[in-house]
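Supplementary Text 2. Reproducibility record for the structural model of the 429-residue chain.

All settings were left at their defaults, and a single model was retained for analysis rather than an ensemble. We include the record here because the model underlies the residue-level annotations in Supplementary Table 4.
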Amino acid sequence: MEDFDFIIVGSGPAGMGAAFSLIEKHPEARILMIDKTPYSTGGMRNDCKMNFTFPIGFPLEYWDQQSADRYLEQVTRFLKPTILPKSNIATYQARAERLGCSLLEIKQTHLGTDGGLALIKELQQRLKDHNVTLALGETMTDIDNKEKCITTDKRKIRYKAVLIAPGRQGFHFLQEMMQRLDVRYVDNILDVGIRVETRIEHYPIVKDYYDPKFYFKEKVRTFCTNSGNAHVVREKYATARGDVWYSVNGHAFAANENNNNGLVNFALLKTVRFTEPLASGQEFAEHLGLMAALMGGGKPLMQRVGDFRLGRRSKNATFNGDLYDFKPSLQGASPSDISLAMPSKILRYIWSAMKNLDTIVPGILHPSTIMYYPEIKLYANKPEYKDDHFQVAEGVFFAGDGAGTSRGITGAWASGIRASEGMSDYYLK
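Retained model, structure tokens:
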């Protein structure tokens, strides 16, 4: 059986943040980072936009501004971001305030999908230079905290402290580990919404503010805006039974005037918090995803705003000619009627937010605008943490979006650093 001082499960920003923090504190420590995929995962692979202003990315149940700012300073010092400029923000903020909405002014940087992949390659090389062992394509299957060892599909490994940070797509895996560790948790919060795609001229604010953060009434917000060479993509999910469904997401490549499709996409998400007797928000989300897949023949749904306003479904012919003047960037979606798949109360709040947004930034409700469904964020595990370092059992720590400690790259990186501080206490034991 192999021995390491620290094991980090997950190679996304939470795992990276923890690894580099541990290297700084304990350069001689034996560190293993494993990931079930053959490549580094996490938000840095998908558009790689980062926010450096509280509260974006920091769930308020675990962070206050003072603590978040302290860790953000460390994240900023390590990543050395180039903050994007903004202009005309006061005009949009004034319009939003008249409607009872708000536009947050956030420090942001954007590398694009290609820039994010280059950053990951650089970070992995730096880990190797510090003698961190990378085991990509290796899957953790079990943990025995009494014996201080994990089991993978290839071996058993001892640890002094372990960080489990699988990200949003590791939702089921994290629940399995919590059951093995006898960790109590709540799974009752999720975000449900759509991804909007339109021409940049119909959402010109992105020329002034790359990823504008609008907050509307009824807990609806804009999220993850992409513009320029922007694309809507599918993300594959599977239930515990093996049923497959797809959520949509967005990404963009680095700015390049010679490679620009002229489109913009962003999510409109409604936060839903369930109370008893619902057992699992995750299962509720899966049922929504499966319903959309059933209607779409295994694909997510898409509908033009012009058809939605007329109360009719979109068809293949809807995406050609006349007012419908651009092709969808996601070809793997089915023209449909999203009102048949999305719960009416959620859809009502989403549509209200879109109307408010069209008043603030006129043009978003152009008939050609596409609404893709579903976009569902699965990071609502709320474990019972034993301390401020996200320890769930003796020497076992969680971090990242899948564990509910963050919502995005910088928040995940900060939560990894915070967990590493607790892990350090086990180094000399």
